[in-house]
């Protein structure tokens, strides 16, 4: 009888312990479900490394100088750029030669002999700029192909040879690049140069070019 009396409290504690474990499991199940639900509804973001990396770049482009009232110009350009990282580069040199075309306004002024003493127009220009490419994009084209590109800014200075003199010219610009392959890319840029001590307040340069990449920044 004593043994039975001793076994009953032990069994009672075993039952209580088992009940407590079952209640704990039951209580933890909804909590886990709610946590998973919170995770499912939370924001998910992923940062993907660049697919294309640039090293030394040669660009051949055709530029348009469209905003002067007395002439327009088309200028073939060449540029050489060194990319230190995916984000930063130095466009060591950009040089272009302007082929000019007179506007009707200039033609009329010349025919009326009321032209100013000199029309200052661009002959040749060169510059050196820093490039910053903070935006890299991966896009779907008609759900059939994946294309890659980037947006970048340029800031630097150079010189313009005009029909009057050489002019110093700080400049700023914005461009975009579409990668066609690891070697070839297409670039579109708009740059504005402020000519110092000139009758031309500024020169706007819109250019479309094809770039060839050698090596890689990484």
Give a verbal description of the structure:
With 218 residues, the protein is α+β, with helices and mostly antiparallel strands. The chain has two domains: 1-45; 56-214, Porin (Beta Barrel). It is 22% helix and 51% strand. The protein has two helices and nine strands, in the order αββββαβββββ. The protein has helices at residues 2-41, 104-111; strands at 56-65, 71-83, 88-97, 99-102, 122-141, 145-162, 166-179, 184-193, 203-214. It has an eight-stranded antiparallel beta barrel with strand order 1-2-3-5-6-7-8-9. The radius of gyration is 34 Å and the shape is elongated. The protein starts with a helix and ends with a strand. The model is unreliable at 1-10 and 25-38 (pLDDT under 50).
What is the topology?
Layout: H1 2-41, E1 56-65, E2 71-83, E3 88-97, E4 99-102, H2 104-111, E5 122-141, E6 145-162, E7 166-179, E8 184-193, E9 203-214
Antiparallel strand pairs: 1-2, 1-9, 2-3, 2-4, 3-5, 5-6, 6-7, 7-8, 8-9
CATH architecture of the largest domain: Beta Barrel
Give the overall silhouette.
elongated
Low-confidence regions: 1-10, 25-38
The helix-and-strand class reads alpha+beta
What CATH calls the topology of the largest domain is Porin
User: What is the number of beta strands?
Assistant: 9
The CATH C-level class name of the largest domain: Mainly Beta
Distance between the termini: 85 Å
Q: Which value, in Å, is the CA radius of gyration?
A: 34 Å
**Number of H/I helices:** 2
Strand content: over 45%
Strand/helix succession: HEEEEHEEEEE
**What can be said about the biggest beta sheet?**
8 strands, antiparallel, barrel
Number of domains: 2
| Overall residue-averaged pLDDT value | 80
Oligomeric grouping of the chains: single chain
Identify the strand order in the major beta sheet.
Answer: 1-2-3-5-6-7-8-9
Helix fraction bin: 10-25%
């Amino acid at each position: 009888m004593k043994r039975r009396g001793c076994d009953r409290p032990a069994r009672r504690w075993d039952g209580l312990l088992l009940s407590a474990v079952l209640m704990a499991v039951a209580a933890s199940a909804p909590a886990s479900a709610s946590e998973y639900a919170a995770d499912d509804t939370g924001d998910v973001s992923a940062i993907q490394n660049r697919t294309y990396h640039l090293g030394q770049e040669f660009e051949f482009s055709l530029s348009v100088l469209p905003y002067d009232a007395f002439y327009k110009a088309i200028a073939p350009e060449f540029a050489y750029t060194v990319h230190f990282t995916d984000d930063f580069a130095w466009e060591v040199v950009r040089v272009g030669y302007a082929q000019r075309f007179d506007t009707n306004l200039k033609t009329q002024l010349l025919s009326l002999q009321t032209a100013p003493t000199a029309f200052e127009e661009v002959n040749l220009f060169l510059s050196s700029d820093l490039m910053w490419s903070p935006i890299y994009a991966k896009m779907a084209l008609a759900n059939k192909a994946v294309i890659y590109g980037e947006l970048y800014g340029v800031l630097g200075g150079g010189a313009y040879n005009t029909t009057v003199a050489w002019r110093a010219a700080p400049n700023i610009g914005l461009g975009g690049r579409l990668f066609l392959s690891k070697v070839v890319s297409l670039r579109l840029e708009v740059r504005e140069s402020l000519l110092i001590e000139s009758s031309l307040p500024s020169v706007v340069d819109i250019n479309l070019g094809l770039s060839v990449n050698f090596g890689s920044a990484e």
